[in-house]
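in:
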């Protein structure tokens, strides 16, 4: 139970990569959202793209926590 909780709390690549891509898209397109009347449609499209990217990346990576101590976490990232 404890290792499953750490895996959820510790961001895996299938979570962090789409979040970074979503942040980049929202920063770049924020002028479009503000200035164009239907620019707000970019936001749901970006969120849907981030979810699609997460679903595409998830089966490719597996994260295993090998050791955890107060000094840090030793994990193994494996590409399937």
């Amino acid at each position: 139970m404890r290792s499953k909780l750490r895996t959820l709390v510790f961001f895996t690549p299938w979570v962090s990569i789409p979040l970074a891509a979503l942040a980049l898209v929202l920063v770049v397109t924020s002028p479009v959202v503000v200035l164009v009347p239907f620019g707000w449609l970019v936001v749901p499209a970006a969120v849907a793209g981030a979810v699609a990217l997460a679903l595409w990346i998830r089966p490719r990576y597996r994260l295993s926590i090998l050791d955890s101590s107060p000094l840090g976490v030793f994990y193994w990232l494996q590409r399937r």
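note: Residues 13-35 form the longest helix (23 residues).
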